[in-house]
Specification:
The protein is an alpha+beta fold. It has one helix and nine strands. It has two domains: 36 residues; 112 residues, Immunoglobulin-like.
Length: 152
C-alpha cells in the first residue's frame, strides 16, 4: 500500500512539474510572438515604428496606420512622457493619404526632445502615447494607445 502511494505522488509531482514547464514555455512563445508583430490596437491603430520597449533618441520618427476615424483634419496627437508622466515632447502624426475613410490610413510623425536626466535605470523608461483626435471633447469618443519606450 505504501508503494502504491509513493507511485501515485510521484506521478502527481511529475504532472505538476511538466505543467509548470509547459506554461512557462507557452508564455515565452507568446512574448516572442508579441515582439514580432506590430503593436497597437489592431482594429484601430497599428504602430510600425518604434516598437514597444525600443530604445529611442531625438528626433523620434513614428509611423504606422490608423483608421480614418482616428484622425481629425488629417492629424492626431502624439505625446512622449518620461517615467514620471511629465510631458517632454508632443506633436502630431500626419496622414499620408486621404483620411476621410473608415479604412486604415498610413501616418508619420516626428518628435524632438531632450533626453530626461535620470538617477536610476528605471527612470530611463518613458511612454509614447498615440491619442485619437477628438474635437468634440466628449469622453465616449476618446481613445489612445500607450507603449513603453526607453531613452538612449
Amino acid at each position: 500500500m505504501k508503494k502504491t502511494a509513493y507511485v501515485y505522488w510521484a506521478i502527481v509531482l511529475i504532472v505538476i512539474i511538466t505543467g509548470i514547464f509547459y506554461i512557462s514555455f507557452l508564455k515565452k512563445e507568446i512574448r516572442n510572438l508579441d515582439n514580432q508583430t506590430l503593436s497597437g490596437i489592431p482594429d484601430l491603430i497599428v504602430i510600425e515604428s518604434p516598437v514597444p520597449e525600443a530604445i529611442i533618441a531625438s528626433p523620434l520618427e513614428v509611423k504606422g496606420k490608423a483608421r480614418g476615424t482616428w484622425y481629425f483634419e488629417a492629424t492626431f496627437p502624439i505625446v512622449l512622457t518620461d517615467w514620471d508622466g511629465k510631458i517632454i515632447a508632443q506633436g502630431y502624426a500626419t496622414a499620408k493619404e486621404d483620411w476621410m475613410t473608415e479604412e486604415f490610413v498610413p501616418f508619420t510623425g516626428t518628435l524632438e526632445f531632450t533626453n530626461p536626466s535620470w538617477e536610476a535605470e528605471f527612470s530611463k523608461r518613458g511612454s509614447l502615447i498615440f491619442k485619437k483626435d477628438n474635437p468634440s471633447g466628449l469622453p465616449e469618443y476618446d481613445n489612445s494607445y500607450e507603449m513603453t519606450v526607453w531613452f538612449e
